[in-house]
Amino acid sequence: MAAHGEAAAVLGVKVRQIRGLVEQNVLRAAAEYRFGLSKLLPAADVQRFAELHVATSVLAKRFRLNSGAFARYLRESGTPLLVVPLSDRGKGHAFFLRKDVAAQIQIPSPRMLREHAQRRIVTARKQHWAEYRQARETALDKPMRRVRVKHR
């Protein structure tokens, strides 16, 4: 039997991510009750999960990447992820990747992640401006004045 803290140490994650795995029934809580705050998990289940999955935050640390940007990159690239919602309010999700998939993917460089984020931001700004422009033209019932940039 392993407590949540011990399971978190085995997987290299925080206790709240272990709680999320238990709430999603990925890991099952032990049937026996223990006094106090520590909850028990079968050690075999934790070990089996650790053999099959790796947290994206652990991979990101290993390759010196921003974990949020790395998880977003994996999601947008269509990589199959185990997404675990965290019960703590406003804490988002924990992402786990199967180890066989992790061995096959190409890990992006920090520069590649930064360029990917910049392209996404520029695209979002253009889309936001287009929506604003269309709403404004509809409200005014006439096209907005086009601003031309002088080229030298």
Write a concise synopsis of the structure shown.
This protein is mainly alpha-helical and 152 residues long.
Description:
The chain has 152 residues and is mostly helical. The chain has 2 domains: 2-106, Multidrug-efflux Transporter Regulator, Chain: A, Domain 2 (Orthogonal Bundle), CATH 1.10.1660; 109-143. Helices cover 53% and strands 11% of the residues. The protein is built from 7 helices and 5 strands. The chain has helices at residues 4-11, 15-23, 43-52, 56-62, 67-76, 99-104, 110-140; strands at residues 2-3, 40-41, 53-55, 82-85, 93-98. A hairpin with a 7-residue loop joins strand 4 (82-85) and strand 5. The longest helix has 31 residues, at 110-140. It is elongated and about 70 Å long. The model has no long low-confidence stretch (mean pLDDT 85).
Descriptors:
152 residues, mainly alpha, Multidrug-efflux Transporter Regulator, Chain: A, Domain 2, 2 domains, 3-stranded antiparallel β-sheet, two-stranded antiparallel sheet, 7 helices, 5 strands, 53% helix, 11% strand
Write down the domain tally: 2
Q: Total helix count? A: 7
What string gives the helices and strands in order? Answer: EHHEHEHHEEHH
Summarize model confidence as the mean pLDDT: 85
CATH architecture of the largest domain: Orthogonal Bundle
Shape assignment: elongated
What is the CATH topology classification name of the largest domain?
Multidrug-efflux Transporter Regulator, Chain: A, Domain 2
Please give the CATH class of the largest domain: Mainly Alpha
Low-pLDDT runs of 5+ residues are none
What is the rounded distance between the termini? 73 Å
Which percent range fits the helix content? 40-55%
| Proportion of beta-strand residues | 5-15%
Query: How many strands?
Result: 5
User: How is the biggest beta sheet arranged?
Assistant: 3 strands, antiparallel
List the strand order in the largest sheet: 3-5-4
Rounded radius of gyration (Å): 22 Å
Instruction: Provide the structure class.
Output: mainly alpha
